[in-house]
Structures are given as structure tokens and as C-alpha cells.
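Continued from yesterday's entry.
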Amino acid sequence: MQEMELHVHYLCPYAQRALYVKAFKNINCQIIEQDLSIKSPSLYNINPLGKVPSLLYIRDGRRYKLYESIQVCQFLDSFPGPSLYPKIGDIIDPLAKAQIDMALKNEIDVFVSAFIPFWWKTPTEKDKQFALKVVSIANKRVQGGRYYMTEELGDVLTMADIALFPFVERIWALKESFLSEMVEGLNLSSLWQWYHRMISHVWIQQYLAPAHRLRKVLSLIKENKYPGLALPVTIYDQ
């Protein structure tokens, strides 16, 4: 017997990664929304860091706990159905996986590190220059709206696209306000083509974060009134 709980907040970009993979794979599992402003014992029981996504998987009575977003996504991708890692027959191509995992560590993680100062603090001039460089590299990677790993693997959707998307989702939503300095002066036509290609997928549309809610979250952060992502999520409609 198998059971699975996926603990999330719908406005957390890391949790969105897992939600997008769940939707892509059409996995039926219990989704539990967590209030990150008042973290519950149930969340800490799975993840001692009190973060999302956190996943509880019960198989034959044994409880397995996962709580790093990429590891949660990789586990979800192991379920039957289309894969975010190219396969040779029924087996994931180890060379393709190595290339994707290198991109996750050396490029997507760097993109996220460039994004963080703009979300959580007032970015320095050094932060701005670094972000412009990193965003430009991502734009080149998805030239013409192609998927992220096209240069290495052909134009196929991979885990790299899923890992990057929630952060580009936020830049797109707030590019003319809070996050304008991340993209100022850049021609990002390829990145925006890629973004629109991604949102054309029905499984992406299921868990998109509404722009007005993202704007509300970031305004609370900038006003020092942010206690953490709270519930119900509709409070960010105000």
C-alpha cells in the first residue's frame, strides 16, 4: 500500500516546482497547504527546517520524508508517465541526466541566487550587474523560445525548465515594478517566448501564481510587514 502527501504553499516558487512536476506527471496525491507564517508540527515532523515543498511517502507502512525541491521533483518524476529526463527505452539516459543535473547546479541555482537579493532586500549595484549577466545567459539558453537544454539534448522539456520557471514567472509578473532592475535595458524576447511556451501547457496553468498575489507578497516584504507565506492564500487578493 502506498500513500503520499505533498506539503506546499501555492505562492512558494520551490513548492511550485513540485506542483508543476506533479501536474506534468498527472500524479494523484494529497496536497496539504501549509501556513508558513505559523508553521505547524505536521510540517516540522516531515521537514525539520519547516520549509516547502515537503513530501511524505508511505510504502508498506514505512514512512519516507523528502524536502529539497529538486529531490522532491526527481522523486515525482520517477512515477510512470512522461519524464523530465530523456530516456533510452525505459531507462533514463545517464549522460542526459548528468548534463541536466549540471545545469541545475551550475546555471539554475546561480539564476536563483541572482534573483534572491531583489526579492528579499534592496539590491546593490553589484547585485544588479550580476543579475543582468545571469538573466542574459538564460535568455541565450532559450533562444527563440526553445527549451533550456536544447543545445545539449534537442528541443525537449526537462527538469531544468521546471526548476527555472517559477522564478521567471515572478520576473515576468513584476518586471515593470519591483523587479524592473533585473531586466533593465535587456532584450529578453527569447526568455519571454519561452515563458509563453511554458504557460501554454495546461499542467502549468493549474499552479500558476497570479501576478496580483505575487505583487502583494513582495510589497509586504518591502514594507517589512511579511511574516511568511500565510493562509488562506486569498489574503493576497486584498
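--- second protein ---
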Amino acid sequence: MKKRIHMELLDYHCFDGLSKEEEKKVIQDAKTIMIPSEQILYYAGDICNDVLFLKSGTVKVYIQPKEIGVEEMTLYELNSGSQCIVNLFSTISSSKTLATAQTITPIEGWLLPKDTVLWLINTSPSFREFKMDIFGKRLNSLIALITDVKFTTIEQRLLNWLYVQGRDTIKITHDKIASIIGVTRETVSRNLKKLEHQGYIKLGRGVIALT
């Protein structure tokens, strides 16, 4: 059973192209976890020492931007196979997290220690390339969304939020987005139409595709 669990861990795309030696180290160093729902994984300002790889369940990553009139703003949700940029960046750089992570449902997964992650970055070109690709696509949008949430236009805030999700196609309703970023549904719909007209996105029924 243990071998099967860790083979599922190696199914993460960031481990594609690892050598047998690198795969063996990942299997040896990974720690399996089971955490109930409604548990804080880290608070904003913490420093992470492990990278989370989610096998099942859902985690939300959020900030509390009271200056825009909402108590909580969800940056993104993590499901099986997705990677948390806040957790990854904090672990690699030993810097404070920019947001808080909390389990929505019970979760199962693995924690890979910081030393192992840094070893992979130094020894595995494929792992390093994958992680740098994540940073390039999502980190700038994430920082902009967090630091400029009070001052940016709704249009720019929406675009930053969409980029932060890390997916080309996002299944979500306008009502859900409105509740996340603290504006009305009408405001979301109007600004999404603007973004579509500008060529950034394509709207479908319950779906937003980045172009």
C-alpha cells in the first residue's frame, strides 16, 4: 500500500523526468498526512518548512483585506494535483507566507521537506524548470493581487485573480467570483465582458478561459 501511495505522489507533473535516484529520494523523504476539515495549515506571516502535495480534499488560500470592506478574500482553492504557490515560495525562499491556508474538507497528501525540494531544484533540470514555470505564470499576479487589492481597478483585480488560479480554464460562476473579491455580480459580469472584449479571456456558461 505504501508503494502505491508514493507512486501517486510521483504522478505530479513536477516529478516527470526525474531519475531513479531522484524518485527514490522523493519516496523516502515524503511524509504522508491526513488532516480534518476546517484546520489552518499556515497563517499569513508563517514560514513554511515543507511543500504540500495534495492527494484528496480541498484547501482554500485566502487573505483578509479589510480595507476593501470584506473580511476574507479567497485567492484560490487547491485540489488533488494542484500546487500552492504561497506554500512553495515560502518554503524555497524561507520567507513569510503572503496568505493563510485552511482545509475546507478533510485532506490526504504528502509533505516534502524543504531540504529535499532544494536538492531537487539543484539536481533535477526538469523539476527546476517546472517550478520556475509556476513562478513565472503565477507569482507576479499573486503579489499584485495581494498588495494592490485596495488600489487596482476591479478589472485588473479580476484579471490578477484569474491568473493566480493556475489553470487555463476556470469553472466558476459570476456569483462565486463576486463573493470572493467583495463586489456585486453585476460588477463582475460587466468587467469580465470588458476583459473578453480586450482579448484576455473567453466567456462560456459557468466557464472562463484564459486566452
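Residues 154-210 form a domain with the Arc Repressor Mutant, subunit A fold (CATH 1.10.10.10). Confidence is low (pLDDT under 50) at residues 1-7. Will compare against the first tomorrow.
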